[in-house]
Amino acid sequence: MGRIVLDKVSKSFGETEVIPPLDLTIEDGEFAVFVGPSGCGKSTLLRLIAGLEDATSGKVIIDDEDVTQVSPSKRGLAMVFQSYALYPHMTVRKNIAFPLRMAKMSQSEMNQRVEQAAGILNLADYLDKKPGQLSGGQRQRVAIGRAIVREPSAFLFDEPLSNLDAALRVGMRLEIGELHQRLKTTMIYVTHDQVEAMTMADKIVVLQAGVIEQVGSPLELYRTPRNRFVAGFIGSPKMNFIGGDEAAKHGAHEIGIRPEHIAVANGSGAWSGVVGVSEHLGSDTFFHVHDTGLAETITVRADGEVSLNAGDRIDLAPREDVIHKFDAQGMRIA
Amino acid sequence: MSDRKLPRLLQAPAVILLLIWMLVPLSMTLYFSFIRYVLNNLRRPEWTKPLPSNWRGFGNYEFVWNNKDFWLAIQNSLLIVGSIIILTVTLGILIAVLINRAFPGRGIVRVLLISPFFVMPAVNAVLWINMILDPVLGLQGLAVDGINQLIVSLQTAPGVGWFFSLWPQLEPISFRATQTSAYAVIIMVTWQWTPFAVLIFMTSLQSEDQQQKEAAILDGAGAWSQFRFLTLPHLGRPIAIVVMIQAIFHLSLYAEIEIVSRGNGNKNLPYLIGEFANNNIGAASATGIFAVILANIVAIFLLRMIGKTLME
Fold first, then answer.
1. Which of residues 52-91 of A touch B (CB under 8 A)?
2. Of A195, A260, B41, B301, whose CB count within 10 A is highest?
3. pLDDT (tens digit per residue) in A242-300
4. Chain A residues within an 8 Å CB radius of B234
5. Is any Cβ of chain A less than 8 angstroms from the Cβ of B219?
6. B170 in a domain, yes or no?
7. ipTM exceeding 0.85?
8. pTM for the full model?
9. What is the 3-state secondary structure (H, E, C) of chain B?
10. Which domain CATH number covers B125?
11. Which residues cross the membrane (chain B) (predicted)?
12. Domain architecture of chain A: domains with CATH
C-alpha cells in the first residue's frame, strides 16, 4: 500500500511562505511526477512527505494514517537523492544493506535481500566495490537498490537523473519506468525536466511558486492546459503565444498554438514570415520564424525533409481546432 | 634518456641541499656516538677533542643502555605521546561535534576554544604547574581544601553527620613529585593541543555531506549510528593527520618537562639527551641515535595503523 494524501499542507521558512496550503492525493501504485521551474517548491514538497522538513501546518497522511509528527524512518518511505548520497567508505553491498542493518535484520535475510536487489538492478558484479569506483549511472542504481531493499510503501525520487549525461538519462528513465511496472509501488518523482515528466508519469503535478497549477495525466496536460503557465511549461519546443488582434479574432486575450500544430503551407497560409534559425533534428526540423506580425518569433515544427534557408519567406497554416485560448488572467477559455 | 637530464639537473640543487641538511647532522651524530667526546675533563684532556683516536666502538651505546634513566625515558616518551594523542583526539572529536551545530555566540566560542594553541609551551607549563596544579596555592590545592572543609562542617550536621564522618580527608596531589609529573605534562599538553584537533576536525565536519545524513535518517539510523557509520569514517583522514603531527611534535617535548620537574622522576628521551649533553657529547649522541630508532618504530606503527585510512 502507498496512498499519500496531503491535507492543507503548508511550509514557511521564517516569514517567507514557500508552500501555501495545498491539497493533493497520490493513489496507491501511481507514478506521480512533481514538475516545475527551479525554486517552485517541488523538492520542499517531497521533503515534507519524506519528513525531512516539518510541515508548518496541515497533515501528511500515508495509508489513512496521520504521519505529520512521525519520524522520517518510521514513515515507510525510501528516497533517492540527486547526489545519490551513497556512503563513500562502504562497499556497494554494505550501502544497500545499511537500512536493513539499522533495522537489525538477520545476516542471512540481509544477504538474500541485497542479492535480490542487485539482481534487479544488474549490480551483482559491483557489490564489493566502493561508490568512488563506480560510474554515475551505477551509483544511481546503488541508490535505488538501497531504496528497494527496504520494501517501502512509496519511493521518493529527488531529481535523480540530473547529474547524468543525456544518453544515460534516457536509459535510466526507462529503467525507473520498468522498475515501477515491476514493483507496482507508489513513486513520487521530482524533476524540472518536462520531458521526464511526460514520459514517465501516470499523474503530473505542475507547480509554480509552491502552488499547484494543474494535476493530470500527461496527455490531459498537453491537450487541455488549465492556464498559460502549464501550456508554456508542458511540450517541447514551447507553445507559441500570440496576443493582440489575432487573439481578439478568436475572442481571447491571448492564444497559444504548439509548433507541431502549425503546418508549412505553400502560398496559402493564414500567417507568413521570414525563416530565422532552423534546427535540424533529422526526424523533424524546427523553424524559428520572424516578422510574422504576431509575436517576436513563431516556432514551427516541420518534417525533417522540408528544407528552407534563413531569409526565405514562409507561409504558415495553423490548425484552428487546437488553438488554446486564454483570458487576461492567463486562464483557459473553454 | 637525454630528455630526463634537464629536469634532473633542475631538481639537483634542491635535492643536494636536502641531503646536506639531513645527512650532515645525522652523520656527525653517528660519528660522535662512536667516540669518547666530552666537553670538559681535566684528567683526560684528549677526550675533549672529537678525534678518531678516541674511538670507543659501541661503548657509548652500552653506557646509555645500562643507564638507570634510559628505560624510564623510553617508557615516559611513549606514555606521554600515547596519552596525549588518545586524549586530544577523543576530546577533539567530542568538542568538534558539539560546536558544529548553530548556537548563539558560536564565533566567540570557537575563538576561545582555539586560543590555548597560541600560548607558548613554556608559559603554558608555568601557568599550569603554579596556578592550577600546585597542591597548596594552585586551584587544585584550594579545591581540595574547600571540599575538606565542607566535609568537616557536614560531619557535625544532624542526621547525615555519621555518613560524612566515614569520609576520608582528601589529599592534594603533588604534581612535581616523581611519576605524577608525567601526568602533569600530559594534562597541560592535552589542554594546549586539543584546540589543534578541534580545528582540524571542525573543518572536516563542515565538509560532511548533508544529503548522506538525510539518507541515513531515512534509512533508520539514529544519532549514534550516524556518528558511528558516517561521521567517524568521514573523520578518518583528519584523525590520521592529527595523530601523525602530534606524534612528531610530542616525541620531542622538552620545555614542559624542564619546568614541571627538571626531569626529576620524569624524563623523556630528548630530556635525557639534554642532560648528557651537559658534558658527555658521546653519550648524548648515542641517545640521539636511540631516539631516531624509537621515532622510526613509532612511525612504522602509525603508518601501518593510519596508512590504511589514508590510502582509501
1. 52, 72-73, 77-79, 81-83, 85-90
2. A260
3. 988 888 888 889 999 999 999 888 777 788 889 989 898 888 999 999 888 888 889 99
4. 89
5. yes
6. no
7. no
8. 0.79
9. CHHHHHHHHHHHHHHHHHHHHHHHHHHHHHHHHCECCECCCCCCHHHHCCCHHHECCCHHHHHHHCCHHHHHHHHHHHHHHHHHHHHHHHHHHHHHHHCCCCCCCHHHHHHHHHHHHHCCHHHHHHHHHHHHCCCCCCHHHHHHHHHHHHHHHHHCCCCCHHHHCCCCCCCCCCCCCCCHHHHHHHHHHHHHHHHHHHHHHHHHHHCCCHHHHHHHHHCCCCHHHHHHHHHHHHCHHHHHHHHHHHHHHHCCCCHHHHHHHCCCCCCCHHHHHHHHCCCEHHHHHHHHHHHHHHHHHHHHHHHHHHHHHHHC
10. 1.10.3720.10
11. 12-39, 78-99, 111-133, 182-203, 281-303
12. 4-226 (3.40.50.300), 237-326 (2.40.50.140)
